[in-house]
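debug: dumping io for the single-chain case to check the tokenizer round-trip. Nothing else runs in this session.
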Amino acid sequence: MNTNTRSVNIHQLKPSQPDAGRLVKIMTMIAWLVLAIGVVLCVANIAEFNDRNWGLMVGIGFLVGSVHIYVIGTAIGLVHKRALNQAVENSSSSK
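debug: decoded output
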């Protein structure tokens, strides 16, 4: 039988605050990657500039999508900071 076991009291565990900073950094990197893919696709398919050029249309979609990814990531970071600031203000005002 395994004797290397330990008991943990659930009251000793404290809930950790979610870290949105890491998510914002990851989403920013993804946005830059998608932007780079979009630029490459647009430059590679710029010769025939019309709406039937699938490579160009997908490249433009990647450009637009990268902006959306960046904005959503930034919004998540701002909402998280605001929630933390309000929590700190509420805890300090209730004392």
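debug: round-trip ok. Residues 83 and 89 are 10 Å apart (CA to CA).
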